[in-house]
Specification:
alpha+beta, Double Stranded RNA Binding Domain, 2 domains, 6 strands, 3-stranded antiparallel β-sheet, 173 residues
């Protein structure tokens, strides 16, 4: 692990390193054994994020309801620039419902071109790594990656990260 992180050492800010350490500490409170792949996934996700000050979209709260006799529904509180929007949507599953709610809040169409879900390690307490590729109406694409012990949260965080990257790219043009 040290050699892996050392190749990024000159690129890791003190804030990023602190975020990695804090996320590992938080994970250790819930997971009995943390493996090297968990640490690497957290580090990779943290180092690839849009800078916090540059994010236009931030998730404030999410509530997801799903079950065998209820339509999967997601309720999201999103902060978009300086405006808070509360939206709800249903879907085929909880991730689909959340993705539809995000699009509703944005008022623009974002296509999900690729969705990849992977368990980092075995067991029910495994971290989930989600990677998405999103595209806007102008054909710009961006990748979002997130890691969480909760599949829905990892999916939502990856989607929001991808959309923030799209908007970050637009602002740089």
């Amino acid at each position: 692990m040290k050699s892996y992180l050392s190749q990024f050492y000159s690129e890791i800010s003190e804030d990023e390193l602190l975020e990695i350490v804090n996320r590992i500490k938080k994970l250790s409170a819930f997971k009995k054994k943390i493996v090297e792949d968990d640490v690497l996934a957290i580090a990779e996700e943290t180092l690839g994020k849009v800078p916090e000050a540059e994010k236009e979209i931030k998730l404030k709260e999410i509530v997801v309801v799903t079950g065998n006799t209820v339509s999967p529904t997601a309720l999201l509180h999103l902060k978009i620039k300086n405006e808070t929007r509360v939206v709800a949507s249903d879907g085929i599953g909880p991730v689909d419902a959340a993705a539809k709610a995000i699009q509703k809040a944005l008022g623009e169409r974002i296509r999900l071109l690729n969705y990849k879900l992977e368990a980092i390690s075995g067991g029910t307490d495994s971290l989930a790594s989600v990677e998405v590729v999103v595209e806007d109406d102008e054909g710009r694409r961006a990748r979002g990656v997130a890691v969480s012990g909760d599949i829905v949260m990892a999916s939502v965080d990856a989607l929001i990260e991808g959309i923030n990257r799209l908007r970050y790219k637009r602002s740089r043009l």
